[in-house]
Target: Aminotransferase
Amino acid sequence: MSFLSATLDRVKPSATIAVTTKAGELKAAGRDVIGLGAGEPDFDTPENIKQAGIRAIEAGKTKYTPADGIPELKQAICAKLKRDNGLDYSPKQISVGTGGKQILYNALMATLNPGDEVIIPAPYWVSYPDMVLLAGGEPVAVETSIDTAFKLTPEKLEAAITPKTKWFIFNSPSNPTGAGYTHAELKALTDVLMKHPHVWVMTDDMYEHLVYDDFEFCTPAQVEPGLYDRTLTCNGVSKAYAMTGWRIGYAAGPEKLINAMRKIQSQSTSNPCSISQWAAVEALNGPQDFIPENNVMFQRRRDLVVKMLNEAEGIECPVPEGAFYVYPSVQGCIGKTSAGGASIDSDEAFATALLEEKGVAVVFGAAFGLSPYFRVSYATSDEALTEACTRIQDFCAGLK
Model:
């Protein structure tokens, strides 16, 4: 009998964390490596938010809190959802967790039984299918394509739904592609979901505020009020507020589901960090003017990366609507051999050779469920991005 749980055989480690770790190890060993794997803003947490955390420490707000969030933060979340999304929730419908990942995981653990299916558009954030597997469900990946700008069509959603479908996980703007759904595109999907009342909707709105070119964000319960009673709207402060390490995520949904999520959290991690919660109150209630200022820089970086990657031989890079990722195709590189003698027979082989020969760390597309692509995070300096893209161009030029 194995000492370790058989459940672990169903999942794999996070590829994005693995790439970031590998890049760090190579840097520590003296290699000149540019890491484009981490999904983390390079901006510092805004000063007013940091000061709110400091004040919480000085005021002795360092004790246990309610398991799924302090009342002040729940009120701030309700206000944010009303202000930004036109959604009405009460504090009893809010759950606060240790990052967005825990919120998603709690919801899946609270609802999935063996055989339950969860529809996940591919490419997807690497953790979605593995969290479904850990919770005992079955992920159903539905592939999109570069031809539809990596957006799921209503026809494909309809075809994927079965009597066993319990959840549809929806992420816009997307990690890894940056694809954002317009109101009309999302309405076409919600029209399908309205025909299947047994299917719940889990929205990951983490990149809500990181949008460009006048793109207007919308979320399913906002587009189709008829889905309100079976939608869990998930978000957090990590990306837009540059608070990745503070670890605060939240969700709004039906009270029965929120109560079940609270039960799981009370017996696992209990409350999120008290100091981080008070900082998140300030993030949501305080000035928001730095967000569009940061977006100007992100959009400039996006345009730089898209232009330079499209100038690389064998690469096609679409222009994303949001987040801080691009997801270029390497179809034109498959079947070639690198200058260092590596056979490029997959996107993983491309990423491996690129790291070894040029010192650029990216995440290969197979990790996100769709090949042959790779993900670049442009949440780093213009100088680093320019150098990294130049190296990618040189690498591609050397393929034979």
About this structure: The longest strand covers residues 165-171.
